[in-house]
Each structure stands twice: as C-alpha cells, then as structure tokens.
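Q: Here's a chain of 359 amino acids. Please give me its 3D structure as tokens.
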Amino acid sequence: MARPVDDGFSMPPEWAPHARCWMQWPCREPLFGKHLQAARDAYAEVAQTIAEFEPVTMIASPEHMVEASLKCGPGVSTFPLPLDDSWCRDSGPTFVVNAAGEVAGIDWKWNAWGNKYPDHQRDAAVARSVLEHLSMRRYAAPLVLEGGAIHVDGEGTLLTTEECLLDPNRNPHLDKGQLEILLHEYLGVTSVIWLGKGVIDDETNGHVDNLCCFARPGEVVLTWTDNKRDPQYKVSVDAYERLMGARDAQGRRLKVHKLVQPGPLHRSKAEARDVDVEEGVQPRVAGERLAGSYVNFYIGNQAIVMPLLDPKRDKQVARQLQNIFPERRLIGVQAREILLGGGNIHCITQQIPLGKRKR
C-alpha cells in the first residue's frame, strides 16, 4: 500500500493558504444537554467568522441540515452526513500536499479518543466520506490518531505529547520509535518534538493543540501560568524546558511565546445538571475544571480566530496574539459553550490546503 511520503506528500503548516475549512454541526445531545442550542450558535458564529476569509462547509446529520443551514447563513455551505459528534479536527481527514501543488487526504483510524464514547462508528466514516465527496486521493493510515494530537511547521518538524500518542487505549502496540516512523511515512516529518502531558483535565488525553502550536517555523505558542500552585504550572514548565532544549528539523532552536491560560475555568452547577449522563461516559459535575486554552485558535486566511473565554484575560491574550501574528487580523469569538463540550475553535475546524486535488 502506498504511503504519502512515497508519493512526495507532506503536511503543510496551518498558515499556508487554505482552499476551505470544514466543520461538523453539534449533534451529541448528552454532551451539551440544555446548552446544545447555545453550542450550535457558537459553532455558527465561528463558521461565519472564518467564512469572511475562506469558504466554509458545515457537515451536518441529515436531520439537522435545515437548522445548520439557517443558523450558519448563506455564506456557509452544508454537507449531509451521519455524525456522532462535532470535532472535525479529529474525526475529519488530515490533508497533505506535494511539490506539484496537489492535495491528498489521510484517513486515520478513529476510536473516539481511546474509546471514550461507545457510539463512534459514524464519525469513523467521516474522513473517507469527505475525501470521496472531494474526489481526492485517500491514504488509510494504520494507526489511531486525531488531528488535534499533532501540529507541524511545514519544514519537517512535528509537535505532539506523550500523554496522547502513547495512550494505551490508542496504539498499545506502538512505541515512540515506531510512531515516529509512521508520522514520517504519513506526514513527511523528519523530527518529532515530544512534550509530556497536555492541558490539565483535557478529555482528549493531552492533545497538543490545547497546549502548544507553531506560529511559524522556529516559533511556538505555549499555554502558560505563573501560579506554582496550579497543576498546569508543572505541565507547562516541563513543556517549556523540552522546547528550549529541542532543535527543529532544520537545526534551529525554538522561540517560545508564553500565552497565559484563562481562569482556571470550572463548570457551574447549571452547566453540570443540564448535561445528561451517556452510558459509558464520565458524568460532567459542578466544579470540575474545564480544559480552557487560548492556544486553541484557528489560523485562517488573513486571520486568527481566537476563543474568548475569560473577561479578565481576553484582551491581554488578544494583544499578545496580535503581536505574534502582526500580518493577520485577530477576531475573538465567545467560546465557553464550545468548551463545555470538551474542546474549542481549533478542535472544531479542519482546513484544506490550497491546491489541485490528487485523484
């Protein structure tokens, strides 16, 4: 079976020009409870914001197509497809490009973040269905992986966490060395920078897109707190030390931008009691910590779409992100309702690089 690297493909950085952004309409009612409509409003606002800069397609279960279309408006396309959940970064395809400007897609194995949700077979078919719809070449990868677990600089370097990729509920038969080989074969990377754990209480078991991401080659943005009593402090310090001791695929040392975390944020009583318990899924309780992170932003064409999560920190973080990305317009979107489901703006989006479709 051909692998992307055999055909000259590699994963481009997220700041490369996009042809389109894909999203998935919220449909798992036990996840949001009475906040489901508010979550849908937030998803629609994200879609509308991104659509100012690039085309957007919202995948929706057939029974939700009319609602999704009406809420998102005429500037957002819709695509009918049965869904279990709403995190397109993870269940959607990951896209790769070659020197000829062709684009292909990777269909990772999907098991709902280490079998956290028993009902996930419809989402397991999303990547294949999207690639078939696009008439785009599909590479079926032999490992469980989600798009939020990886971030690349487009020059051979990949960021990930040990907590996620070495999770025994994902690929218990693979060690670091074997994973690095597969990441090279399917994403074209030559250097993997392993961070330790992800953001505290992240339901994905440490997705890197909540902790750290590339801003450009040689520069990363890292979730940070100066509060030594906060359990996130040790996690972020460990990540910072690993980043400062690393070199990327081009031999560069990294510049690290410390991005303050919101809160910490916690689930309110209303937000807890409104959420039904799904069989086999840990219940959401009042007072539990939410894995809020400003690093979970979307790099769009000419724009950065950031989550607004904490009125005490939003403006400070917006100024910092604008300084990191001076060439892009910064737009904030209220995102707590998305966070209540377990992720944020980067988690609900998946970009297609600009280029010709490889068939």
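Q: Can you summarize the key feature?
A: The chain has 13 helices and 19 strands.
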